[in-house]
Amino acid sequence: MSLTSILQVGLSGVLASENALQTVSNNIANENTPSYVSETAILSENASQPKAYGSLGAGVGTQSVQRNFSSYAENQVFNATSLAAAFSGQTNTLGTLSSLFPVGSTQSGLPAAIQAFFASVQTLSTNPSSIPDRQSVLSQAGSLSAQYQNATINISNTQTSLVQQMQQSVSTINGLSTQLASINQEILKTPKGTQVSNSLLDQQSAALASLAGQVGISTIQQPNGTLIVATKSGATLVDGTQSLRLRVQTGGTYQQAGQANIVYQPTGQVLTSKITGGQLGGAITAQQQVNTIQLQFGLLAQGIAAVTNTQQAQGVDLNGNIGQPMFAVSGPQVFPAESNLGSAIVSAKITDLSTTPPTTFTLEYNGSQWNVTNNSTGSTTAMTASGGQLAFGGMAVGISGTPATGDSYLVNPVGSTAGSFRVVMTNPNQVAAAAPYVASAGSLQNGGLINTNAGTETLSSGIVLAPSGSAVSGAAVIASGFFGQPLTVTFSGGTQFNVTTSGGAFVASGIWSTSGTTALEVRYPSNSLASGSAFVFSWGGGAPASGDAFTLSSGAPGSNANAVAMSQATSLPALSEGTLNQFTANMSNSYGNLLQGVNQGAAVAQTTLTQAKTALSNISGVNLNAEAALVVSYTQAYQAASAVIQTSNTLFQNLLQAI
Q: Do residues 396 and 385 make contact, with C-beta atoms less than 8 angstroms apart?
């Protein structure tokens, strides 16, 4: 080997050590830089010089500076990041509604307000003529209404916030997609045969990590080094140097307040149901969860108004007038799709609240029939309008005008109801605490009740029943036009009795059979919420005598029968899930289970993310202890190679002096 060769070998060692030291120094400098991937200088032996006696080494060269990278480990982090971000968004959203559903407690929130209202009615039943107790009923009704208004504002604000989150997330996604397309463009500028800049690949990883925090993604490495980036459902966001945008359709397909769709801008396809993961996927899932809560609130408001107002109509107020509604709520809402081309107008009203589910329905016209889809179950039923009417979900849906094929409508049975739930009664005298009639033995004579009955028969206190359609055999049926008038029942002889007004006008007649059978049915007025029902008296026991009489007079002001019934109305079947008590408990339990599930999911997702980051860090992270050891090693190698160069120089100088 010549002195020149010795010099070249030493110089190669110095240069290789310099490159290695620079690589290690860069690692140390970027130890805290997010998304930085540590690098390793790959050194390789230069080709030996063949000689007759063997081969002589030609030193060392830097083959490449390699990123310590694993696409599998990185993808695991991306997936875990998307999942954790989605659960985090749901947890935060559901947490804002916690005051509405105090899990495991009825001491606050909506359950407490409902309980307090019906408890005030129970208190009134102990003294039905008490004005302060009547005022307390209206005060508690107002508190219940206020609770609903506050809840509605909370839900509405949450929905609006979610739409804003979607808008912000989509804006971030579009920005990151543009950035990744630009990085692809820079990658394509890399000269052929030259390694792509590690810092450029680090920028790509950082952008992908941020994108994964916004939405679940998949990546495909192309032969030219660029990446195709798509959502988990396959919507391409980045293809080469082109970025493809998403947009937010505020109001959604049916232009509803607090709703939004995610639209794929290149095709106009709605992706809302297909987006998963990240802040965007979490916001979409949370929107669905909040919508369900809103529907439950609306259905419960309908139930409270229905049972209270119906019970009001079955009794009479302090002045003996038939009870009037205490609460008012709005009915179903129908939203036409923005893309509809026909002239059809669709309306809906609830006909049977007990079969109305807490869900929305989609109506789509196929040219001859309407496809009705339950949006909770996904089941679809083809229906033909009869007389411009459809019936489903406890509703009568009216259709007028001409629909175009493909036109669709969203029917929301109760979703907007909670916000419209309000008290319409202001006069405490109007609380219908009394039964419409009380039965007394005897007849009215000279302004007083005189009982000269010789028989032992009695009349029950009376209950409200829905007649089967035909009157019970022997019972006297009093038409609704006589409702509220004082009536007299008189046995004319044997088992026959007549019903007359206080002025003696004949009303109806009946035949007594045995005790316990129905005696009279007093039909409620057709314009009342109790229409179709009757106030029914039964024979109590014993036997009548000719001339025996019974007087039916107004239960006001002293009767408490209707107040007692109203206080117990929460235990009567009223909704699709049973009683108001059952429905309220199910709402709270459902929310509690949902929140618990989301919190558990968030904890698991965070653990998975931590593990995935640790695994990636073990591959790509900077280990300062290891790097410090490499600094020592490469420094020693540099010094040794420098000594070789110094020795070569000394030998060369000695040779020159010897010549």
A: no
pTM of the model: 0.86
Q: Where does residue 131 fall: left (phi above 0), alpha (psi -120 to 50 degrees), or beta otherwise?
A: alpha
Which residues, 6+ apart, have CB-to-CB distance to 192 below 8 Å?
none
The Cα–Cα gap between 435 and 451 comes to: 22
What is the C-alpha separation between 150 and 147, in angstroms, rounded? 5
pLDDT of 432 over the 60 cut: yes
Where are the alpha helices (H) located in 369-492, listed in sequence order?
Answer: 417-420
Whether residue 102 is preceded by a cis peptide bond, meaning omega within 30 degrees of 0, is: no
Distance between CA atoms of residues 302 and 325, nearest Å: 13
* Helix H or strand E encompassing 17: helix 3-29
Q: What is the DSSP letter of 48?
A: P
Cα 98 to Cα 92: distance, rounded to the nearest angstrom: 10
Which residue carries 């005790």 as its tokens?
Answer: 515
Note whether 542 and 551 are within 8 A (CB). no
- Tell me the C-alpha distance between 412 and 374, whole Å: 11
Beta-carbon contacts of 600 under 8 Å, excluding residues fewer than 6 positions away, are none
Residue corresponding to tokens 């391409």: 236
**Cβ-contact 556, 318 below 8 angstroms:** yes
DSSP H helices in 380-497: 417-420
Is the alpha carbon torsion for 445, 449, 450, 451 positive or negative?
A: positive
What is the rounded (10 degree) CA torsion for 219, 222, 224, 229? Answer: -30
Tens digit of pLDDT for each residue in 550-567?
999 999 999 999 999 999
Q: In 3-state terms, what secondary structure has residue 173?
A: helix
Token pair recorded at residue 306: 């229905």
CB 335 within 8 A of CB 256: yes
CA-based end-to-end distance of the chain: 20
Segment 86-98, tens digit of pLDDT = 999 999 999 888 8
The length of the chain, given as a count of residues: 659
Rounded Cα–Cα distance for residues 511 and 70 (Å): 94
Q: Residue 86: which of 290, 285, 289, 287 has the closest Cα?
A: 285
Residue 510's DSSP bridge partners are 497
Cα–Cα distance measured from residue 658 to residue 280, given in angstroms and rounded to the nearest whole number: 81
For residue 459, the 8-state DSSP code is: B
Closest CA to 639 of 81, 21, 5, 170: 21
Instruction: Provide the 8-state DSSP code for 457.
Output: -
Helix, strand, or coil here: 555? coil
Output the CA torsion sign for 413, 418, 420, 426.
Answer: positive
Half-sphere exposure of 652 (CA within 13 A, CB side): 12
Hey, what are 302's tokens?
A: 């309908």
Q: Give how far the C-alpha of residue 275 lies from the chain's centroid of Cα atoms, to the nearest Å.
A: 16
The predicted-structure confidence for 354-405, as pLDDT tens digits, reads as follows: 999 999 999 999 999 999 999 999 999 999 999 899 999 999 999 999 999 9
